[in-house]
Amino acid sequence: MEEQPVLAAVVQLAGGLFPATDCPDRIVFIESAAYIEHAVRLSGPKGLVFSPEPGDPPVVAYEGGLSEPGDELLVGDDLFVYTQDYLATPFLAIAGPTIVRIGGSADHKGFLQDADLARTQGIFVEQLLHPGVFLADQCALGTTHPCAGTRRLHVSDTGEVRTAPGGLPLGTVESFTDAENEGCLGGVIDTSVLDDARASRPWLSRYLRAIDTLRDLRANGRSGYAVSGFGARLTKGLPDLEEPVDAPLLLWNDDEYLVCDPVRERVFRLGVDAAKILELVLLTGAAEQAIELAAEHLGLGGAAPGAVKTTVAKLVNAGVLRAEEPA
Question: What CA–CA distance (Å, rounded) separates 308 from 326?
Fold first, then answer.
């Protein structure tokens, strides 16, 4: 396999997020080649197996590891992937693709503190925005991130099967049967702690998607963006409202205004007036309320109804907003 598809598979394996297309049906990572036959069986006809020894497709040979802080994974001659713990993130000297893992309660607390800082002050951990850094197990950290479940499997050197190195055991390669799973970090953090964190911060998936969006923009040489709802609003003095967690993100810097839908991977550039109206629409979720706020906070007066409806219609036609959203 070529380097980029392999790296994409490593990121899917680590993050627990599988796109709708262009990815293996199941990715199996084995720490011991003794389980290669089991892994090939588990991977299925359109799967992928990472093995410490070579084999016929769908097997991809690797050296090193992908589980513990300090691990280095080598695939072929060119792809190195590093693994670090979350608390080391602010101090990373990023030399190549890096997986950042939550390895215990201290890491999880650090993640939540950083999320709170971004939410209240708009300050994101700089290293998390690097195009080569990927946060593992987002499905267990976010509030509405879909879990890939057993589409990813990690087989330890003793034959235990988990969805991730920090996950709950699901059996062994001999006894494993496909089942629903929500324990991708349950082996290192009590599931009740994860549940409490998500319940008290229903916006965590929005935070993770903001990181992904900012990282993708930076990969294209674009940076310095503020994100609406994270320490800032484009329009000052708005009521204390919150967007739905899966709503598009509104970003801006000195040069442009963008609306990004990370779920559907759409980005659209706006003028400043349309961006301000969109912010109100996302916050209220209802055209009438957005019109009232536009009249009051944007000084549109009687022109507010037409401005709101025209802006939303254009964004629906562009595919940025869904048709069922306010129009």
Answer: 9
Count of all residues that appear for the chain in the document: 327
Within 10 angstroms of residue 213's Cβ, the number of other Cβ atoms is: 22
Alpha helices in 31-146 (DSSP H): 36-43, 105-121, 138-141
Q: What is the mean pLDDT of residues 78-94?
A: 93
Helix (H, G, I), strand (E, B) or coil at 268: strand
Report yes or no: 327 and 311 within 8 Å, Cβ to Cβ. Answer: no
- The burial class, CB within 10 Å (0-12 / 13-18 / 19+), for 296 is middle
SS3 203: coil
Model confidence at 309: pLDDT above 80: yes
Q: In what order do the strands lie in the sheet with 161-162?
A: 59-61, 48-51, 27-30, 152-155, 161-162
Please tell me which residue, 315 or 216, carries the higher pLDDT value: 216
The residues with which 78 forms a beta bridge, in sequence order, are none
DSSP string, 216-237: HHHHTT----EETTSS--SSTT
- Closest by CA position to 297, among listed 233, 253, 246: 233
Tens digit of each residue's pLDDT (9 = 90 or more) over 154-203:
999 999 999 999 999 999 999 887 766 668 999 999 999 999 999 999 99
Give the residue extent of every domain in the chain: 3-200, 224-317
Residue type, 308: V
pLDDT bin (cut points 50, 70, 90) of residue 325 is very low
What is the Cα–Cα distance from 282 to 293, expressed in whole angstroms? 12
Q: What angle do CA 142, 325, 297 make, to 5 degrees?
A: 95
28 Cα distance to chain centroid: 20
Confidence at residue 326, expressed as pLDDT on a 0 to 100 scale: 46
